[in-house]
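Continuing the series of single-chain predictions for the mutant panel. This is the parent chain; the variants come on the following pages.
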Amino acid sequence: MGSRDVKTELVPRHLQLREMLFHRWKANGLRPGDRIESQNEMSRFCDFSLITVIKTLKDLEAEGIIRRQVGQGSFLERTPWAEAHQRVGFFYNRDVVGGGIFDNDFYTRLVVGLERSVVSDGNEFILGSFTNTKMPMAVWDALDVVVLTSITGDTQLDFLDQTASQISVIDQTLIHPKVHSYRLDFTWAFQDMFKSLNGEVLRVLYLDSAISSNEQRLRRDAFTQAAAEFGPDCVPSFSKVNQEDVEGGLAPVLDAMGAHDPDLIVGYANSGWLAAIRAAVRPKTQVYPYGLDATGPGFVVSSTEWMQSVLPIIYSNLADRKARGAIHDFKVRFVPAGT
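Parent structure:
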């Protein structure tokens, strides 16, 4: 028997059942007044003896957590997993952000913007990480909200049906009944960018992320659509880049620039590359990378405003844990050069 099994066996059976019930009720979004399962139903789904179930229910009733009515069933009186303050966790993917989140300007700004808003609301903020195949499920289940970022096409998503916490994803789009996706919508920003070009003949180099995800594809599709609407004078070319590879990712970008001699460069680029990119282009070539809290021309997103728009929805969903998943867009603003 492994150490994990030994620890489990050392926990009394009625306390194991207690935690199992709390996990189930939290995951199902039960609130005070909702009816809970009968003792026979509990014995069937949890594989505990009826004696253990009865003892556990008596303990919960004595603590005022449930109310039992003869002939009517048992009802939840209060939710001990819901504290006076909310516990919000922000977790990033170490398989994507290998050097750590504070070596990445985009994710650093995200976490700072979210933490500032969470703490100012009087709630608790927890920072952590996961990988494509390993998630800290015990930690996530102890939180009210788990906010995830840098999910890719390689990330295993089985955890979505296992955790009791509310799951939100930032800068990503996941279609799942339990998940709320908070994404940046570049549709109008791309259109405004092309409108600012006044119909000039244009060679555009789009730097597309080599890290595959739904958001990466949706963003590229929005750019492609806007380029097509601009007209046949727009000649787009595409180059895959790894924006997380600070040292090795720049060379492919410079090669693509030399091959296509673009009038405009758009897309994913590490902030550490920008000086070298701008030094290598012609004076009139415009460079509009993705980023947060930009102060110059380009795609402008305030991380604080974005997170402040996200949190009210998260808090509302906590009040109604049965709220179905949805996609929430935050519009990106385009600021042209020379303004």
